[in-house]
Structure formats: C-alpha cells, structure tokens
Amino acid sequence: MAGKVFFSVTMSLDGFMAPEAVPVEDVFSPKGQHDPRAQRWLAKWSELQAWVFPQRWFRESAKLGEGGEEGLDNDFVRATYERTGVSVMGKRMFEAGELAWPEEAPFHTPVFVVTHTRRDPWERPGGTTFHFVNDGIESALLKAREAAGDRDVRIAGGAETIQQYLDAGLVDEFVVTLAPVLFGTGIRLFDRVDPDRLALEQTRVEASSRVTHLTYTTAKR
C-alpha cells in the first residue's frame, strides 16, 4: 500500500516559515559570516528552529552528541523521520544544503531534487543519494513514490516547492509546528496557494512547552 505525501515545517506565529530570502552563497559561505544580512537570516532561522536542537533524537541523528530532551517534541521529531521513505525538495533548498550539510547529509534516504539542472545522482555517506529530476514536480513525485514503497514521501521544501505540490492537490497531509516567535517579514508558507482549490481538516493538536504541532489533512474543493 502506498504511503502518504506530506510536509512538516516550523512556522512563526505571524505566518512565516523562513526569513526574507538571502542568496545561499551569502548565508553559507565564509564571507557570509561577516555579512549583516546573512547574520540576521541565521539568527532568525535559529530562533524559529530553536525547539528542535535540544531534542535527543535530533542531536543523536545529526551526530551533535549524546543525550538531550525527551518528551512530546522528541517523539515528534523521531516519528517524522521514521515515516519518511523519500524526500523531495526544490533547487534552492538543495543549493543551500549542499553548502551547509555535513558530509553525511541528514536524510538517510533517497532525495529527489526538482531542478532544471542536469546532474548525475550524488551519493553521500549514511544512505542519502540525491537524484535530479528535470521534468517537473509530478515526475519527481512519481519517482519518489516508487522509491518509498509503503513509507511516506516528505516534501522537504522550500516554500515554493511545497506551494506547488499543495496547489496541484498532491499533498495528503501536513504538519505546521507553530513557534512562539514573530518575524514581521519573510517567506510565507501559503503565499502562492489558491485557497479556492484546497480544503483542510484539522486532525490533531499537540502542544509542548516550546511549540504547538498542528496536523491537517487536505482535499480538493
């Protein structure tokens, strides 16, 4: 039986899933360490994601050291990882990650990158292989479903890629983790989604002392 297509993102309380766009080479290059725009981007992103860094599962999976917090948030991080058989992402997310990820990329599954750039598969230690798909989001999803088997396909990001899959009616379920931070400006999760084409049903709410996890199923109107 085929798994679900889902995404899971952290969002600020005022609706942003990332700070305003800054060129990835500015953020994740040695020069970027001295660029005020890049420093601001990293500070805001770190504040948004602060809930995940102390979690034991994340720390040990990312090889940041043993130990860490356990509880609802840790269980959530582990469950998201365990359900994911394949990830799909856009070119911008991949380009940022190629600069920022360690040699052992954090996915440990196949990853399909939606891009116009032709490139041979890129195999990393730890079970992650990046495959580059040049003929659109539906083709990438078809390949991802075949590779995932009965596990789920995660649309990893970024925002534009998630929006394209949502607008095409190809997402079954998603989780928004609301963090108690305010951005004021940035990249909104639902900016390019046609609300007349998408119906949502809230199926689960889980709150910790740090964040609130909201789960929704989707349907076409």
From TrEMBL:
Q: Name the Gene Ontology biological process terms.
A: riboflavin biosynthetic process
Question: What range(s) does the Bacterial bifunctional deaminase-reductase C-terminal domain occupy?
Answer: 4-213
Instruction: Give the coiled coil ranges.
Output: none
The family database entries (InterPro entries) matched by this protein are listed as: DHFR-like_dom_sf, RibDG_C, Riboflavin_Biosynth_HTPR
Transmembrane residue ranges: none
SUPFAM superfamilies found in the cross-reference section: Dihydrofolate reductase-like (SSF53597)
Question: What Pfam families does the record point to?
Answer: RibD_C (PF01872)
What superkingdom heads the lineage?
A: Bacteria
Q: Which GO terms describe its molecular function?
A: 5-amino-6-(5-phosphoribosylamino)uracil reductase activity
Supply the PANTHER family for this chain: BIFUNCTIONAL DEAMINASE-REDUCTASE DOMAIN PROTEIN, DIHYDROFOLATE REDUCTASE FAMILY PROTEIN (AFU_ORTHOLOGUE AFUA_8G06820)
What name has this protein been given in UniProt?
Answer: Dihydrofolate reductase
